[in-house]
Write a structure and sequence with these properties.
Blueprint lengths: L3 E6 L3 H12 L4 E7 L2 H8 L6 E5 L7 H7 L5 E6 L5 H6 L4 E4 L4 H15 L12 E6 L2 E6 L3 E7 L2 E6 L3 E5 L2 H4 L8 E5 L2 E4 L3 E5 L4 E4 L4 E3 L2 H10 L5
Parallel strand pairs: 1-2, 1-3, 3-4, 4-5
Antiparallel strand pairs: 6-7, 8-9, 8-12, 9-10, 11-12, 13-14, 14-15
């Protein structure tokens, strides 16, 4: 069974060490990273898939609750804090469980078992196929399903992701983002464009153009044209 990939947000070193100890005692968990502030965790989630987040509430710069609020869609979350008055607010954000400090190992284990009962099937694949990615826009983490993407345009240090419903601008490059995309569908056709081959309407090879489903015409770059045309050679 696939391990449950987790991150921990905790700014106190003794509590961090305690959590590491608990994780080491439960082989079904994989502690991917520990963060002492939510902003670094947010940056990490842009490029890394996580199953479960353990977060303290009282954190520097950005509280654990505000961190949860800005994620879309909401991930699986377990709240850990010394302040029980935050419990209701945490559950309103769909937190799976609430652990009051100091957290005993038995209580920690029961919380993990609750996660497994509720979401066990979603952790069962050894090598799950990713169908979406998360990108940051205006301080929020936005989920984008690969099947919804028409094309991606490079804008220097930023990229614009075009779907049928919207466009999203985020801090990244085409070279970086293409490593996240499924190679079977996404192709670099120009120094400034990656396209989803499932969203091609037609190909005008004479004029080196790819016409997408939204009628956007994208020029085939000289360095990419030969490989692209060979891949989509018509069957006569």
């Amino acid at each position: 069974m696939k391990k449950i990939r987790c991150i921990v947000l905790e700014d106190e070193e003794p509590a961090q060490n305690l959590m590491r100890n608990y994780f080491n005692r439960l082989p079904e968990l994989e502690l991917v990273e520990v963060f002492d502030n939510a902003l670094e965790a947010s940056d990490f989630l842009e490029d890394n898939a996580i199953d479960l987040i353990f977060t303290d509430i009282e954190m520097p710069r950005l509280s654990g609750l505000d961190f949860i609020r800005m994620l879309s869609p909401k991930p699986h979350v377990i709240i850990i804090t010394a302040y029980p008055n935050f419990a209701l607010e945490g559950f309103e954000l769909d937190a799976i469980d609430y652990l009051k400090k100091p957290v005993s190992f038995d209580r920690f284990k029961k919380s993990v078992e609750k996660v497994q009962r509720l979401y066990g099937n979603s952790f069962s694949e050894e090598n799950p196929v990713s169908i979406a990615m998360y990108v940051k826009e205006s301080g929020r983490m936005i989920k984008i399903e690969f099947a919804d993407i028409l094309y991606i345009e490079g804008l220097g240090d930023y990229i614009k992701i075009i779907t049928k419903e919207r466009s999203i601008v985020t801090l990244s490059t085409l070279t970086k983002i293409i490593e996240t995309l499924p190679a079977t569908n996404f192709i670099r056709v120009h120094k400034s464009f990656i396209i989803n081959s499932d969203k091609i309407d037609s190909i005008d090879s004479a004029n080196s153009l790819v016409i997408m489903n939204d009628k956007k015409e994208i020029t085939l770059g000289r360095a990419f044209k030969t490989a692209f045309i060979s891949r989509f050679k018509a069957i006569n």
